[in-house]
Amino acid sequence: MSKPVLVLFALMSLAAALPAAYGQQEPVRDYELAVTKGLEELQAGNAAGAAVFFRQALAAKPKDRNAALSLGISLAKANDPVAARAALEDAQAVDPADPRIKYELGVVLAKLGEQKSAQDCFAFAASSPLADPSLRDAAQDALAKLAGPPAGPKLSVAAGVEHDSNVILEPAVPVTPSKEKKSDWAAIVAAEGAYRFAISGTTAGQAWYRFYQSVHDELEDFNVQQHTLGAALRAQGGKAAVGGTCDFSYTLVGAKHYSTSNELMPYVEAKFTQSSTTRLRYLFRDVSYYDDPLFAGNSERSGASNTGGLTHAVEVGSAVLVSASYDFTAATADKDYWSYKEQYARLAVQVTAGRWAATASAAYRDTRYDAVVTATAGTQLYPEARHDGAQEYSVEVKRNLSARLSASLSDSLTLNDSNLAPFEYRRNIVGAFVEMHL
Amino acid sequence: MKKRLMLIAVIVLFAAPAFALDKAGEVAFVTGPVFIQRGDARIPASLRGPVMEGDAISTGRGGAARILMVDDSVLTLSEDSRLAIDRYAYDPNKKRAQSVFKLLLGRLRAAIGRANATVATETAVAGVRGTVFDIWYDAVARITRLAVFEGEVEFRNIRLEIKGVRIIRAGQRSSVSLNEPPSPPQPIPPPKPGEGTPGGGTGDVPPLEPPGGAGPMLPGGLQLYLTPPIDQQPKTDTTRVNVNVVFP
Fold this sequence. Notes:
The structure holds two protein chains of two kinds. By secondary structure, chain A is an alpha+beta fold. Helices cover about 25% and strands about 45% of the residues of chain A. By secondary structure, chain B is mainly beta.
């Protein structure tokens, strides 16, 4: 008989000779098995299923720090922050100095809207000598996110290329002269310089200047340059916040003055549940358009609009954010046929996974213009007032290449259906951008 | 003739009630570099990937894995370790397995389920049923260390001619050096005050963390309780640069 076979025989004889112990009370083995199945479910993305096994582990070993911690993490991922908090507080009672428990408790408290307590937990984890470097880094990142952007200046620059299948939406009627070629490539540069300032622990403001420039490959008359000055203020109080933004934009097209606009948008925001945020907003916008040979009659669109809107965003687990919004706008223009009432509904899903983030959205815009378009002599150009229904779809995939650099690919498709044939169009914009935060 | 009879005896004793399986177990948790050597192929371990008889699982620095066997045994492999599944046979009628594992390097926590199992190293053999224990093989010092947390382990030198078998019970530890019988069982030392990790003993047994202990980390970076990764962060809004100009 060969030596390996002999060794195998000896090993198995040894095992066979042992008394059968399986089936007796084995809390440690039950614990190990439950923890393993819990970790498996959690890693597979089934946080609720994982929580069941971690509860079994706790039943086998009550007041066990590791099982309570893992149960808390699972419940937080399963979007049950109240139960997660209880589990993590149980774990904390076993080991009050544990930085990982503090960190996860901070995550849950932030979800519950208890920002100050969450900050305390992250600060504890970030400064604990027991924390390993990855935990310290995560805690410091969390602190930075809770605090928002640091006070002081910041600068970001984005650059890329875009292909627009339909640069000029309405080439002939009513304001823009016809152009044979309507699709084009463009290089885009956008930059933002901002200064953030804290007024108190719960109130912060920001002022910014934004610059945008597109350079078309062929349709150079349609190059856009925009300068925007703006400011924002936000005050947080428990689960509610109030804030507002205002800005002023100056836009040139083909190096000629195209429009000037002012916007004011106050809002209130509330967290009615632990995993959702609701924002109610009002937007006032006043725009002046300017004529030039290319955009004759552009000034007819000048006017003001009032918009009321509601957005409800829900976190599904820790990686998915679903938001739905609705806006109603009433706009008046110099010419009635440019005045309109508009309803806009949008559903968006944002998924984050490590350095990757993807956003997809679908929207519908219903725009009813107030009057029939007329020529200068008062002749009606169309039998009825324009009524558009536009489907808008977009998708963006973004990857953070480093702490300061990200790259993105995006596609947005608009399908505009109108009761007046000249206003029907299809527009697809594909873009690739790199963004740098300095 | 005598050798053939012995071989037949081995086959009749062990092979008859057991069946070959598509898989002996699966990867239930994996973190860091973990590979499965299957024949000539070196496969990165993936969640719920199969583990088969004849496989060798290795972990690199910072890597760790939990393997859930068909009989509900759990094998937790620490970093810088290598474990071979030399034999695994499962009888679905009796719902029991017979298994032989070989710890070639590093540290293993075994929570043995419905199985008659042996864990061998280069110096020692541990025979177990329904037991939870840590076994640690130091390839430099050529010493195998054992700590038992539940049940009993029959512990002896790998070389049959070296006499001496010891029963190591829950709460006890022992070790086997090259060409030596097992050391007398000693109690696993309690944690030092403020240490945070139970174990921490001195002498020939490395500090150990009993399952479900107060701290997941073992001194020296060994981690047997594989806590879920840190991947939860507070949500923040993203700002995108765009422009609202259309013609018209």
